[in-house]
């Protein structure tokens, strides 16, 4: 489900490995949170979060989520928020190595990293939740606004837009583009260069720069709006999600 790969300079790569599309089910979400939390305790001075070549993560595992009752859905989203909070609060820098398409939950995870390197070309990224019948919770909207600005975030999220890599780079949603096979390498090199700085000064400055993010995401207990769970079980959302699952089954 996860591969932990060491790189020079005490950089740990956490690679999602849940075929076929790295869909975020409860087990993967909790494994990721544990790995991100434990990496600095195991000597990591920087973390690269990566996925499969061609697809970083397809986002939330909708078929698995539809099998859960209200308590299970609530627990899943609390765990997902806790994962986002763990990335936001990591005491060491995190780079999202976006190794391909990154819709919905995959894009959300990348928002909390220090830096985002994406494969250029045909790959797309975005918070397309509206297109599959889900709203975008306020705390996630905050994280998106922090990266691309208020108005642009509004337009992208309300439309549920997926943009290509070049557009994502132009609007600041990702920081750097690289050839698919070089995304992880570029992520490691960026971290290695950052880690050459005097560590106390760099980490202290980083903490100040990310204080606004931590003010919202430093403690995710109670961060999930109960109205989001109500929306998940609304007739429109359930119909849209079941239609999506049927479409995916037909493709399979």
From TrEMBL:
Any Gene Ontology biological process: fatty acid beta-oxidation
Classification via InterPro entries: ClpP/crotonase-like_dom_sf (IPR029045), Enoyl-CoA_hyd/isom_CS (IPR018376), Enoyl-CoA_hydra/iso (IPR001753)
Domain of life: Bacteria
GO molecular function, one term: catalytic activity
Sequence similarity: Belongs to the enoyl-CoA hydratase/isomerase family.
PANTHER family: ENOYL-COA HYDRATASE, MITOCHONDRIAL, ENOYL-COA HYDRATASE-RELATED
Full protein name: Enoyl-CoA hydratase
Organism field: Luteibacter yeojuensis
